Amino acid sequence: MAKDTEKLIRQLSLISYLMAERRPVTALEIRRDVEGYSGMNEDAFARRFYADRAELESLGIQLTIERPGDGTAEQEHYSLRSENFHLPPIAFTDDELASLQLALNLLDGEFAYAEPLRLALQQLSWGRPSPLGGGGRGLGIGTVGLGVTAQVHGRDPSQRLAKVESAIFRNKTITFEYHSIHRDTVEPRKVDPYHLLFRGGQFYLLGRDHERDELRVFRLSRIRDKVAYATKAEHDFRRPVDFDPRPYGDRADWQMAESVGTARIRIAERIGWQVQRAHGRQGTFAPADGDPAVPPAVDDDGVIRGDVVFTTEYGVTRSLLGWVMRIGEHAEILEPADLREEYERRVALVRERHDGAFPVAAGHPFVLEEEPGVTAPATRDGVIRPERFARLVTLASILIHAGRQHERLEVEELTSRLNVSEPELRDDINVLNVVNFGGGSYVLYAEVTDDGHVEVDNEPYSDHFARPARLLPVEAKALVAAVDLIGDHLPEGTLGTVRAKVVAALGEDPLEHGLQVAHGGGDDRDLARLISGAIMDRQLIELDYYKPNEDEFVKRRVEPYALINGREGWYVAVFDPMREDVRHFRLDRIRSAEVQEDTFERRPEVDPAADVAGWPRTGQLPASRSARVWVSPERARWERERRTILEELEDGALVTEIAFAGVDWLVREVLTEIGDLVVLEPQDARDAVRDAAAGIAG
């Protein structure tokens, strides 16, 4: 029998034994009565028992140890309280369970943590219809679409994520080769991994860099080759107790480095409402004019009326300058003076490079050389798989329940619920069949029949696995990350209450222990609930919508079909009767929305989520034109990660291709790069960038 299997039998038998005894027991009793320990000598037992206790503790299962007054280890007494193993009851409503089922359907196969999420939902739905199948009380899949699902693609990237996740859980120092984008070099790194952050479609690792002895942020897609453990020790470090990952999820792009200053930026009333909504967590706002001692006039949702001054710290200067330039004439940097001067220089550079002919060095066509393993299909070992311990506990609860109900379970249904192969299921059942709680009393007995069913003894000898177990750390992280990824964008907006109940039951927020999903944009929960209600009730909505590319407001009376997330935020997919076509409106650009009394019939030909794997996931909108764009040598390595490269030039610059549907969008895309992108053709787009820069310069 494999050592890992022996360990699982010992640990499960230890749990069952301690809970069956219902009294503190000595190490000598454990050695004598628990499956897997009795054949060991004293030293081997001491090592194995200590290691098993430590691993159970890391899984959130804490044994109580009572020590005698004289401190002799031989007389220590051990027990396991029910609350340290069983999950406290959580009173989910039917709608909350339906939302969980819909979340799993949306994320299954698309979410790096889908397997531990599946087990978490099985535990949470104990005694209720399983959320791992069924339709979810009419909450249709078609009402929500996910373009961004916290997934990694390719064999090697997925294996790196799995290794990093394991290292965070086990407090193991890791080593890897890393492409430092700022220095354009590949360097060895040795890191104590603290936390994973999913932001803008990418996973980032937060950890202590040994060489620099400070906290650093590493983008996982820039890790080269394999991630390895630095030592063979069981644990290498302890995460600092004062480490707080939350601020990293709320930061703007210009705050993803140590602060170098504080900027004051005047924002025009025309877009002030939008900036306040989107960046309320990244700075403060105050009226640009008037008496500071007088409370500002605000709208019903707390937005300050009139021009405002946005005060924000920044660490990445070019990101802040790019954000301001994209806004254009509606933003003005007030201070510091050196930031304002650099902005003016960059605006002049954009204008100069688009006025008249722009010389380009000689070059050659770019040939893509893909990194081995990047595009290879991900293997099951390369996704985040839960500990087998969790799967066995979940399976035990399913089998005991079936035995009590005199049910025969279909093998195919079980393998689907647990996402395992039939051989894996058979192995798991064989392990559970030898788990006992002392004296030859076994937890359960089950067998796979020739006709594809699992039969369970209808008089199980133990009920300790007949209640849902506490969520293991990776299960809890998966559940909360899934909730945070989707937010209150499901019909009836019930995931927010699910999250609150789960955190209350666990006694802590799993976000603090290794995985955080950053929220893009501002708080759109109220708007999402309003639109979701209209979708479910099939009511028309009237939108007051800001189109930044054209700098205009439009009103649309539309039929809402679905909420869809993308790389830049959440959208409502609608059918616009005026244009007789499907349109997508970004929630953070909707100034106001009003549900109409008029209803509509869903059009069978409309599939609002048809494009979910297209532009929402890639960020590349359907386009009818393309532009040839020069990229400066200083910015070339960043653009290689984002763009389609056409040519490599002798001076280190690139020529890239950017597809676009409207010139106004292309202009703002170029302005964001503050002079490091230059449109070569078409001429009308080149002229439009020049004119936009001239308008900003005034």
Automatic annotation (TrEMBL):
Alphabetical list of InterPro entries matching this protein: CBASS_pafABC_assoc_protein, PafC_HTH, WCX_dom, WYL_dom
Residues covered by the PafC HTH domain: 388-498
Keywords: DNA-binding
Residue span, WCX domain: 262-347, 626-696
Record flagged with keyword DNA-binding: yes
Pfam families: HTH_PafC, WCX, WYL
An MF annotation (GO) of this entry: DNA binding
WYL domain span: 161-225, 529-595
Alphabetized PROSITE patterns for the sequence: WYL (PS52050)
This protein's name: PutativeDNA-binding protein
Species this protein is from: Patulibacter medicamentivorans
Biological classification of the source: Bacteria, Bacillati, Actinomycetota, Thermoleophilia, Solirubrobacterales
